[in-house]
Amino acid sequence: MRGLPMPESSFKYVFVAAFAAGCVIRGICTAPVARGRRRESGKIVGGRRVWAEWLLLMLVSVGMFVLPLVYLLTSWLDFADYRLPEGVSVVIGVVGTAVFGFALWLLWRSHADLGRHWSVKLEIQQRHSLVTEGVYRHIRHPMYAAHWLWAIAQALLLHNWIAGPAFLVAFLPMYLRRVPHEEQMLLDNFGEEYRRYVSRTGRVIPRVRRS
Question: Which of these, 10, 62, 115, 210, could form a disulfide with 66 (CB 3.0-4.6 Å)?
Answer without folding.
Answer: 62
